[in-house]
Amino acid sequence: MTSVSLLGGADAAPIVLDATPARVPTTRRYLMCEPRHFTVEYAINPWMDPTRPTDTSLAVAQWTALKETYERLGHQVEVIEPAPGLPDMVFSANSGTVIDGRVLGAKFRAPERAAEADHFRRWFLANGYQDVVMPEITNEAEGDFTWTGKYLLAGTGFRTDPRAHAEAQEVLGVPVISLNLVDPRYYHLDVALFVLTEDLVAYYPDAFSVGSQEVLRRLYPDAILATASDAACLGLNAVSDGRHVVLPVEATALGEQVAARGFEPVYVDISELRASGGGPKCCTMELRG
């Protein structure tokens, strides 16, 4: 941690102030889906290769370790039953955005994932959510919608239709800031940026258009900037509770930057699910309110 000394008069003892703020975790509630039917049988992003063998049992073991990590950190994890024939249903973040108890569902761009949305809609209704709106315009939920506590950062360029940003603002009643993604490897906002606290994010600049980079610089002048290698292991597909930051085990440089800002990196191995372009955040929908 960095500290600074402030000197008073000639005979005054130096006052040492810690320049790194204390990081305080808040208890979160998450919705996850076991990858019981996980495989890569189609390709809808650059990470997916149907000719590469996948290990479903390993995916389940890694997902279970992620779930247990959240529980060990004091968070509550709800689980939705996986449906046969939907191998990407494990990526629950793509199926709903929940803020203050309001739910905006998902409408997937790829037909292979379209049926996932209704499974999650039914889960919300069965679990007491009364304000559930299914979108008219394509949006892939927390894949492209990132709530900071102040703004809804909204990605577009590959999956979510830019018109969905206005729909999200109307349904959720929060200010929306549009960001354009330009690198197909980082096809969702949640593989290019994550929120550490309300006023601090980490992101990979080259994933964004020039104008969006300028927007991020203005909003977050002290942001953590990820390296190309940390972005390439989906290190930015991370989850923060305000103190603990759960991120892929390969993202060591990013973890060091996170630790230097007073957070505690918590590494998980989710390499098998990365074969489908997912990481910790993809597997984690936050239920807010």
Automatic annotation (TrEMBL):
Which is an annotated Pfam family here? Answer: DDAH_eukar
Q: Name one GO molecular function term.
A: arginine deiminase activity
Domain of life, per UniProt, equals Bacteria
Q: Which UniProt keywords apply?
A: Hydrolase
An example Gene Ontology biological process: L-arginine deiminase pathway
Report whether Hydrolase shows up as a keyword of the record.
yes
Specify the protein name: N-dimethylarginine dimethylaminohydrolase
